[in-house]
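> forwarded from #structure-qc
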């Protein structure tokens, strides 16, 4: 079996990707210092797949500790790099922490790719690299605008670092630009664990619906869109996960003529905030308590993907609908309520 190192394996997209990799015959190890994730998420992976995943509790910003993981696993075929801080608001308050954490960890991993001749490297990027795009839907060749936050800059700079690395080395790389990952594994055994008060829309919806939050706000209803609220491309996390398996298979089958390929991972459907809320209410029957608030700084008006390249080259076909996204997110939130002590009595390891 091909061994894949997943950094951030206890995280939201990392844990879902490990499930998909295992179901497709890969062997997986995780590297996660649990600074922003809960180690018990890998217990959820075991309940789904029956497999125990070894996690190295290592800070990737420590080169020696990272190097030691590769010394112990000289047969790593590929790396999927998820581990990074991802809060837009926090990055505005603490830019240096974001640049240091997100870029040092990436550079240390790439140094190990070089040292240990790891053939394949897949990077967790984001549609945030496009900034406020002039043309939507965006394609992979849509030139990035200035990022809206230090977090966004760490994704843009991360892509540039990998591009230059790939030119100078033998490893083949793929950059996957996620749009808005939402929802949870259909089993309800793994899902998103927001750190503290949720910034993102869907956890804010589900935590309000379950009563963890008394109400949520729609940030802005005066945008030039069909109902005044922002448009995003919500994509189920399990569809995102499967795209990583397909990306590795694409590399392993040597179908990639380029040293570094880029793919958009979105459904191609733009959905407004109010439409997302209506979909949640329709699927769950829960009336959401929300108010119409002012715009949030840094929000782009509208963005959604042209996903033709991932469909054509990776054979990727997103299968979950917006209703599925809301249904699985709600199922996970309800499970969390029951298993609250399972995650140390709080929904996240930090608050
Ligand atoms: C979506 C829409 C909000 C919460 C960011 C990053 C992206 C990725 C996902 C990491 C916006 C509105 C939200 C709320 C609201 N991050 N909203 N009330 O900002 O598109 O993307 O998170 O992987 O890289 O850029 O996602 O879910 O925060 O916001 O009205 O309580 O929902 O204003 O219009 P965003 P989001």
């Amino acid at each position: 079996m091909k061994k894949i190192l997943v950094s951030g394996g206890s995280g939201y997209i990392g844990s879902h990707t490990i499930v998909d990799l295992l179901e497709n015959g890969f062997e997986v190890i995780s590297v996660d210092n649990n600074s922003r994730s809960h180690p018990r998420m890998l217990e959820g992976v075991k309940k789904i797949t029956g497999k125990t995943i070894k996690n190295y509790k290592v800070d990737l910003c420590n080169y020696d500790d990272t190097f030691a993981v590769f010394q112990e696993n000289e047969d790593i075929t590929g790396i999927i790099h998820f581990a990074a801080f991802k809060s837009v608001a926090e990055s505005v308050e603490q830019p240096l922490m974001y640049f240091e954490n997100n870029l040092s960890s990436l550079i240390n991993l790439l140094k190990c790719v070089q040292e240990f001749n790891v053939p394949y490297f897949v990077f967790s990027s984001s549609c945030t690299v496009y900034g406020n795009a002039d043309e939507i839907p965006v394609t992979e060749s849509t030139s990035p605008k200035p990022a809206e936050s230090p977090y966004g800059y760490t994704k843009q700079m991360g892509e540039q670092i990998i591009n230059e690395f790939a030119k100078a080395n033998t490893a083949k790389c793929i950059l996957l630009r996620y749009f808005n990952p939402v929802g949870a594994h259909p089993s309800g055994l793994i899902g998103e664990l927001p750190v503290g008060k949720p910034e993102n829309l869907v956890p804010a919806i589900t935590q309000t619906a379950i009563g963890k939050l008394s109400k949520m706000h729609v940030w802005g209803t005066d945008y030039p869109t069909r109902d005044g609220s922002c448009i995003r491309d919500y994509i189920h996390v399990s569809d995102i996960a499967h795209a990583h398996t397909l990306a590795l298979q694409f590399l392993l089958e040597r179908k990639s003529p380029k040293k570094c390929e880029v793919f958009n991972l979105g459904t191609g459907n733009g959905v407004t905030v109010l439409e997302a809320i209506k979909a949640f209410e329709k699927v769950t029957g829960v009336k959401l308590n929300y108010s119409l608030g002012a715009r949030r700084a840094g929000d782009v008006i509208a963005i959604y993907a042209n996903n033709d390249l991932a469909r054509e080259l990776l054979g990727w076909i997103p299968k979950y609908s917006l209703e599925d996204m809301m249904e699985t997110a709600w199922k996970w939130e309800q499970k969390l309520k029951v298993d609250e002590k399972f995650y140390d009595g709080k929904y996240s390891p930090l608050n």
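QC bot note: The chain is about 40% helix and 15% strand. The domain at 3-183+234-265 is CATH 3.40.50.720 (Rossmann fold).
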